[in-house]
Structures are given as structure tokens and as C-alpha cells.
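Regression test case RT-17, inverse folding.

Input:
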């Protein structure tokens, strides 16, 4: 095992750290993944924007015919990948179309889907300690003669915090790669192009770069020595979204288990309280996801057969509640002002915005306001050692 070549990528590192059994399934057994709609959407968007970049590098602009070809290519990839939810298909097409309108933020496009570590024409990249890296950078732009911009496309709905950006493994790997592939630039700006919202930016200092290289060395050494004996499942809140959950006996048992037995809490230490609370929280996420998964299959079967599904002593059928929404303009016109005020609610943010622009009434409005709190709940944070 000591001589095995292990090339690090952000995906490989994340898999290894999150669950050793998942890592074993993915990189040693190489089992096929469970189909994932978000992965399909990301692939369709990436391939379409890669095609767009190729056109841009030739013309430095898009004609109407170019845009049509790019969107037609998106349609083909979407069908090829089997995106069967029309709303997801349309959403992805809009994401691609929006980026075509603001494709270049720098002065020059330097690279598209720049691969490294794959062989066959791609450059081999290693850290100073000789750790080999593998991956592909979506887009590389020149901002000015001293500044490089690295762009990574993301189709996720949520934006990372500044702290998460500073420690994002994929961007940190791209930063190391950029130093070798484009050594003539003094500064490297790293960005996540969140196709569903905005572009967010970060960078790495020389010291952060050195620390990250040491971190990669430690992980690489662990991966090289990794054996089947260490491939144990780690139940966590991400299990329901794991690509390999259908192969995992531990996950299956957690989904099927119903006879949970708990020890008396009165004699628990603080460490035991935290440990069991965290374990139960993870299992509850798994059970919630399993319930949604089963419900989706039941719903689809009822739709296809137009018949309820019968269990031993239970019949499952589809109910649908209705909700009526009234047109605000029509109600406002027809209902007297005094009565209308009793029908509507007030949005906190809208009121605060109005008060800030009308300070004369601010104090009186605030004096008659009331503040209510939700039920307390537990949260977590990492302990710094």
C-alpha cells in the first residue's frame, strides 16, 4: 500500500474525512453512485458554460446564434443525464442564460476546464512535499497584468460564509495549482460563481498556503496507508444525501431500527450528554430522510396505478389540501379602509425600512411594539484546542 499513487482532490478529501466507508466504496471498490438530481444539473450547467467559454476565446463575444447553440447544448446534456423534473431543467437553462450575459469579469479569458493531474496532456501538479493533486478549474481570467482570477461554478442554493471561503479545500487546491500553472501573476483571487445568486471572492496568504500544504501531506499519508480494516461507517447528518447509502449496512440498520433503548440521564456526565444528543440528532435526520424517500416512492406508485396502496392493516392514499390566495389590489379596492387594516399583517423588515426613512414617527411606533421569542433550542460549535 505504501507505493500506491493517491492523487488528492477536494471531493476525495471530503469523502475521506466524512466517512471512511464511503471513501472505501468510492475510491477502492469504485461502486456506482446513486443518481443525484443536483449532480445532473451541475453537469449540464458546467458543460454548457465550458462550450460558451470556447466560443468566447475565439470571438470575445456571443452572437444570438451562439447563445441559441449553447442553450440547445444545455438541452441535449439535460436529456442525456436524465433530468426528469421540468422545473429543474428550466432552472438550469436560466442559470446558463444569465451567465452568458455577464460571462467575463476580467480583461482576458486564460483557461476553461483546465485539467491537472489526469495525464494525457494535462500538467502534473504536486505540493512541495510531493503530494500529487488532480482536478479541473472551471474558468481562469486575467484581471490585470499582476492579478489572476480563478472561477469555480456552483449550483448550490446556499452561499458560504467568509470563514468557510477562507478554508474551502477546493479553492485552496486551485490556489496551489495557480502558482505553478500561471507563475507570472503576483496575486491570485479565488471565487465561487454561485449560479443561483452571486459571485463570492476570497484569497490565500503565503502563510495560509504553507499551512494548507502541510495539511495535505498529513491527509495524503493517511490515505496511502488506508486499509479495508479502517473502512468503518460514520453515521452523520449527511448520510441521507450520500451517493453510497444503499450499500451501507450501518445506514440501513439505522433506518430500520425501532427499539431504541436509552439509559437514565440522571447519572450522565457532560461528555455523555453531548455524545448521545449528537448521535440521536444524526439518526433523526436519517429517519426523516428515509420517511421522505419512502413517501416519494408511495406517491409515485399511486400516481402510476391510480390506486391506493394496501398494507397488512393500513391503506395509504393521497390527500391534497387547498389554499386560497386573494389578489391584494382587488381586496384593497373593495374593502373599506378601516376593515382592510384588520385583514393584513405587517412585515418587520418593511416597517423598519419605513421608520428609518420617517424618523418623526419612529419612537411612537417602537413604544407600542412587542417582541416575542421562539422556543429555546440547542445548537453546536467546534471547540478550539
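Golden output:
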Amino acid at each position: 500500500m505504501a507505493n500506491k499513487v493517491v492523487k488528492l482532490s477536494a471531493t476525495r478529501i471530503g469523502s475521506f474525512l466524512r466517512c471512511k466507508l464511503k471513501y472505501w466504496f468510492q475510491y477502492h471498490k469504485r461502486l456506482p453512485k446513486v443518481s443525484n438530481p443536483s449532480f445532473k444539473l451541475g453537469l449540464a450547467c458546467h458543460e454548457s458554460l465550458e462550450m460558451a467559454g470556447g466560443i468566447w476565446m475565439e470571438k470575445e463575444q456571443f452572437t444570438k446564434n451562439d447563445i441559441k447553440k449553447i442553450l440547445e447544448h444545455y438541452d441535449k446534456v439535460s436529456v442525456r443525464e436524465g433530468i426528469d423534473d421540468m422545473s429543474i431543467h428550466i432552472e438550469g437553462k436560466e442559470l446558463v442564460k444569465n451567465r452568458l450575459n455577464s460571462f467575463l469579469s476580467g480583461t482576458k479569458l486564460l483557461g476553461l476546464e483546465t485539467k491537472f493531474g489526469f495525464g494525457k496532456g494535462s500538467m502534473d501538479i504536486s505540493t512541495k512535499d510531493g503530494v500529487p493533486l488532480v482536478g479541473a478549474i472551471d474558468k481562469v481570467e486575467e484581471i490585470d497584468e499582476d492579478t489572476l482570477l480563478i472561477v469555480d461554478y456552483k449550483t448550490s442554493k446556499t452561499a458560504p460564509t467568509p470563514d468557510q471561503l477562507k478554508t474551502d479545500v477546493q479553492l485552496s487546491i486551485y490556489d496551489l495549482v495557480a502558482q505553478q500553472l500561471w507563475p507570472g501573476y503576483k496575486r491570485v483571487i479565488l471565487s465561487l460563481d454561485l449560479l443561483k445568486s452571486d459571485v463570492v471572492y476570497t484569497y490565500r496568504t503565503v502563510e495560509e498556503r504553507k499551512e494548507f500544504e502541510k495539511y495535505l501531506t498529513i491527509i495524503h499519508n493517511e490515505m496511502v496507508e488506508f486499509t479495508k480494516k479502517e473502512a468503518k461507517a460514520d453515521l452523520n447528518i449527511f448520510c441521507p444525501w450520500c451517493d453510497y447509502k444503499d450499500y451501507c449496512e450501518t445506514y440501513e440498520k439505522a433506518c430500520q431500527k425501532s427499539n431504541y433503548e436509552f439509559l437514565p440521564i440522571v447519572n450522565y456526565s457532560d461528555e455523555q450528554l453531548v455524545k448521545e444528543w449528537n448521535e440521536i440528532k444524526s439518526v433523526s435526520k436519517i429517519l426523516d430522510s428515509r420517511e421522505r424517500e419512502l413517501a416519494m416512492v408511495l406517491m409515485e406508485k399511486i400516481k402510476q396505478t391510480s390506486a391506493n396502496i394496501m398494507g397488512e392493516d393500513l391503506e395509504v392514499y393521497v390527500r391534497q389540501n387547498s389554499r386560497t390566495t386573494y389578489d391584494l389590489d382587488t381586496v384593497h379596492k373593495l374593502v373599506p379602509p378601516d376593515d382592510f387594516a384588520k385583514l393584513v399583517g405587517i412585515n418587520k423588515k418593511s416597517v423598519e425600512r419605513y421608520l428609518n426613512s420617517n424618523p418623526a414617527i419612529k419612537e411612537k411606533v417602537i413604544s407600542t411594539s412587542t417582541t416575542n421569542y421562539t422556543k429555546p433550542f440547542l445548537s453546536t460549535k467546534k471547540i478550539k484546542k
